[in-house]
Backbone:
């Protein structure tokens, strides 16, 4: 696994790549990709960091791990490439977007336009074996992404962190709530949504309201 990401992130995370856990993680990922079908494509693993440079981060959305079906994962949490059918969680995100800010349900499930506006779409685990949800968890990715969140919290101000579901909320302890804004709700998965923990959370309008309060440009969702 080659670490290819925007230079602004390489500068911030340089020390992380030299730690023993990350070297073990790199070895594990290389072996998995050589022996099994894994997602996303190897060149897309760090896409979230490429499309959203460190200096531009205004919002962080935390997912769990990549989609594990063919052609779905593209390196941005909850996102799929243009032309790929929308997974259930993404459908619920778009339905909430419709009712929250009045945006028509999008044709494309590619969230790259969000990333280019300063939304870091970060999965807690950045890789997965095909058809095996959670298969690359507890191998070091969580340590790495926790460090990413801690770095953002320490080095920046007034970032909006959007934590959907219990897994994302585990990252709360790495965020300084005195200098950042935190929005939480249930997960957009059908299980959570059907229990009433998702719809009506207004994460998108709340985020823009927070950004406008600190004179930052609102996100065009």
Residues:
């Amino acid at each position: 696994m080659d670490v290819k990401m925007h230079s602004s992130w390489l500068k911030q995370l340089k020390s992380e790549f030299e730690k023993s856990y990350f070297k073990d993680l790199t070895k594990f990922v290389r072996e998995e990709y050589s022996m099994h079908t894994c997602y996303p494509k190897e060149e897309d693993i760090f896409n979230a960091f490429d499309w959203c440079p460190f200096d531009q981060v205004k919002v962080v959305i935390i997912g769990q791990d990549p989609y594990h079906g063919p052609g779905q994962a593209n390196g941005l949490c909850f996102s799929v490439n243009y032309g790929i059918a929308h997974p259930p969680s993404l459908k619920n995100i778009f339905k909430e977007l419709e009712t929250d800010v009045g945006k028509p349900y999008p044709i494309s499930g590619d969230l790259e336009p969000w990333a280019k506006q300063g939304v870091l779409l970060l999965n807690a685990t950045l890789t997965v074996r095909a058809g095996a949800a959670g298969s690359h968890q507890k191998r070091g990715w969580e340590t790495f992404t926790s460090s990413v969140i801690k770095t953002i919290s320490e080095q920046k101000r007034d970032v909006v962190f959007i934590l959907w579901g219990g897994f994302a909320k585990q990252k709360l302890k790495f965020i300084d709530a005195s200098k950042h804004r935190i929005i939480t709700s249930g997960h957009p998965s059908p299980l959570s949504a059907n229990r009433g923990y998702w719809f009506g959370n207004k994460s998108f309008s709340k985020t823009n309201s927070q950004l406008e309060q600190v004179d930052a440009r609102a996100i065009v969702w």
In short: The first helix runs from residue 7 to 17.
